[in-house]
Amino acid sequence: MKIKNLPLYMNILKVVLVAAGVILCLFLFGGPNANGTEEEISAFRDGTKLGLASGFTGFIVFLGVGLILLFFVVQLISNPKKTIISILGIVAALIIYLIFWAAGTGDTNESLQLRHPVEQETIVSTTAGLWTALVAVGVAFLAVIGGFFSRIIK
To answer: Which residue, 62, 78, 94, sits at the end of a domain?
Structure first.
């Protein structure tokens, strides 16, 4: 395989994967809706259409995780300083999430007025994720403002 043909092969791979995903999603549209009988829903759940779509989704997720790990290894070898900083950022986000998760929340199904009640742990983990995202946006905003003022001072 010649390296100059790599973009062509990658484009072909993208088109094939997207086409397969679209076709498998179209299979799902043929399934029963929520008003279907229990037998129809059970037959669809155990059938080939849902099995193919689920298997393809699992394959794509597994492939994505593998490529991410491969990317980190390659970057760690070729550019260790920036990669370690990126990994530290991911670890910092995890620590912030765990702090918010351990702190918990006062929200409940009743206070949120949910139509479909969920487990309290779902509410706690969702709240922790939202606060983590808000902290990340806040830090990014402060970094932009700090960069702007540091340029003005120079």
So the answer is: 78
Could you list the beta-strand ranges (E) of the chain: none
Whole-model pTM above 0.70? Answer: no
Count up the domains in the chain and report the number.
2
* Closest to 83 measured CA to CA, from 105, 68, 98, 95: 68
Give 118's Cβ-side CA count (13 Å radius): 13
Q: Which two tokens stand for residue 92?
A: 């910092």
Tokens coding 11? 């484009």
Range of the domain at 116: 80-154
- Give the tens place of pLDDT for each residue, 138-152: 999 999 999 999 988
Which amino acid type is present at position 6?
A: L
CA nearest to 135, candidates 84, 97, 90? 97
